[in-house]
Structures are given as C-alpha cells and as structure tokens.
Specification:
Strand order of the largest sheet: 3-2-4-1-5-6
Strand content: 5-15%
Number of domains: 2
Number of strands: 6
Largest sheet: 6 strands, parallel
Distance between the termini: 33 Å
CATH topology of the largest domain: Rossmann fold
Helix content: 40-55%
Length: 339
C-alpha cells in the first residue's frame, strides 16, 4: 500500500518552479525503483520524481493492482493519475489471481512502453518479491494444474496448518523449514510443485535466470523511516480510510461471494472488516485489528528490504517529500552526467 493518497497534494509542477531542467533524456537506460514499507511516502516521492524527470509510474504492489480495492490499498488520487501517467493500478478485477510471474510480464510490457515513448519508468511499491524478480529474473517453475491446487486447499482446510506443514516436511523439508504453519499459500504452492513435477521447489528455483528481463540499469531507492513515526502514520491513515469508505468497499466485495482464497480477499483490512460486517466483532475492534495487522506487515517489510535490497539511496527520515526528492534528484543528476 502507498501513503500518498493521505498526504497533502504537492503542486503538479512544483519541482519545475525551482528552475531546474529535466535530465530524463540522459536517463533513458535506467529504471527507477522506489520501495519501502507501507505508509512510508513512496507514492508521493515517485510522483515528484516522475513530474520532474518526465517519468511514468508503474505499480509494484501486489494489492493495488486490484480494481475494487482503491480505498483500502491507498491507491493514488485521481488528480495524481491525471498529472502523471500510472500503470498497473486497478488493472485487474478482484476475481482474478495475479501471481508474481503474471505481474512481471505486465511490468516488463509497461516499462517497454514507457521507454518507447521517451519517458522514464519508475516502479513504485512495497511487494519485495515483485521487485526482486523484476531486477533478477524469475524461476521457471512449471505450471501446476488448477485442480491440484484446489484439492490441496481443501486438504489444508480439513487437516489444518500443523498437519499440512508436516506433510510438506516429508516431501520437501527445505521448503517446510522456511515456512510457518500459517503461510497457507506458500505451503500449498511448495507441495503442489512436488506433486505436479516430482521435484522440490528449490530444484526449480536454482534454474532462475541470471538477470532481469529488463535491459539497462536499476536505481534502487529505499525508504526506511523511523518505526514509531511510521506506525503513527499507519494508524492515522487507517482512520482516514474508514472515513473515506473502506468498510463500504469491503461490503461491496463481500456481496460478490468470491472464493476466500483469492489473493485480494487477503488484502489488509478485508478479513478484519469482513468479520465486522458479519457481526462477529465491533467496528472499533475491527479497526484496531487492521492497524495491528498493518504494523506487523510493515515490520516484515522492513526486514525484507534490509536483507534483500542493496539500495543506491536509503532515506531514513520523514523529512518530507521535497527533502527526499532533493536527494533523489542529486543521485539521478550524478547518474545522468555519468551516462
């Protein structure tokens, strides 16, 4: 999720008011990646960079791709998407599944399109796996039959996470050792690969391509603000989301009677507000549960980016979008001079 929807809007061309000249033409072999935990200000920064460097923004968030979850995933405001072109936001229905591989194909097409029109591609999001496969490539794991996946979901439902985890530990102990009993989706994925191919998931992952499907150089900018301040932002943002119709958005989703295993049904806020709408808990409890889940999610994102992302620039404070942009501009200016 991205925070810009609940930040003050900067003027469309405020960066140009500084009297600076765009260096986009000198960055035509670069792809900018702006990432970090939820609510860290990624989208506002991406908007400023795109505005100044003649860029377009490509979604790197696994939930913002779903059309019906605009409020709950904090997608950018309509006026922002009119000012700077955005790609892969609200691209799919919540009835669809968007795997990492499917997103990669969409992202590569979007980057190619942006470059073909002489613009700078800026990938913005907090889904670490998506960003990793964009920059490094993805393992070519064979397709698993949908019927097998559905059978394994039913098996998980009948036996529970503990028993299913034990099953996986027998056929693929390496994968099982990396997963918790509650990580249903990945447990089923690992088990289904063994069942469908006769080989463990790790075998296929060792065949990962040596490089990115995107030509050129990636510039990685990671936002890692102080956790206490970030958690306060998360809490305030959720309150704003509720005022803007987040609960009603979930009510609309529930009316569709969708498969609860669809990815969008697990988006932050959907399970919690669903329990409220079904009369299982009160609204205040649901709100607090969403805040807590989001804070825990942000903590996991901090850990992921610390361990898996080697950044060209790390921004560790909440100095504001202008201050963050000035640092990014200086970095990109150096790269454009050297290119």
């Amino acid at each position: 999720m991205i925070f810009s929807s609940y930040l003050p809007a900067w003027g469309t061309h405020w960066t140009k008011a500084l009297g600076l000249v765009s260096a986009a033409d000198s960055l035509n072999n670069f792809t900018i990646v702006i990432c970090g935990p939820t609510a860290s200000g990624k989208s506002a920064l991406a908007l400023a960079v795109a505005d100044f460097f003649n860029g377009e923004i490509i979604n790197g968030d696994s939930m913002q791709i779903y059309r019906e979850l605009k409020v709950l995933t904090a997608r950018s405001r309509d006026e922002e998407t009119k000012t700077v072109t955005h790609h892969l936001y609200g691209e799919l229905s919540i009835k669809e599944k968007c795997s990492a591989g499917a997103w990669l194909n969409l992202a590569v097409d979007a980057i190619t399109d942006v470059r073909a029109r002489g613009k700078l591609p800026i990938v913005c999001g907090g889904t670490g796996l998506y960003l990793k496969i964009l920059m490094e490539g993805i393992a070519e794991v064979p397709d698993v039959p949908e019927s097998l996946t559905e059978d394994l979901h039913q098996l998980y439902e009948r036996e529970g996470g503990v028993a299913f985890h034990k099953r996986l530990s027998i056929v693929d102990p390496e994968s099982a050792s990396k997963l918790t009993i509650s990580d249903r989706q990945r447990l089923i994925r690992a088990y289904s690969v063994v069942e469908a191919t006769g080989r463990k998931l790790g075998y296929w992952q060792t065949k990962q391509p040596a490089g990115s499907p995107v030509e050129g150089q990636f510039v990685k900018i990671v936002l890692t603000p102080p956790r206490d301040e970030l958690y306060q932002r998360i809490n305030h943002r959720l309150d704003a989301m509720v005022s803007d119709g987040a609960v009603e958005e979930v009510a609309d989703v529930l009316e569709k009677n969708l498969n609860p295993q669809l990815p969008a049904m697990k988006a932050l806020g959907v399970p919690e507000f669903s329990r409220y709408l079904r009369g299982q808990i009160g609204l205040n409890e649901a709100i607090e549960n969403v805040k807590s889940a989001t804070r825990h999610f942000a903590k996991r994102q901090f850990t992921w980016f610390r361990n898996h992302m080697t950044a060209d620039l790390v921004i560790e404070d909440f100095g504001g979008t202008k201050a963050a942009f000035s640092r990014v501009k200086a970095l990109l200016g150096t790269l454009s001079v050297g290119s």
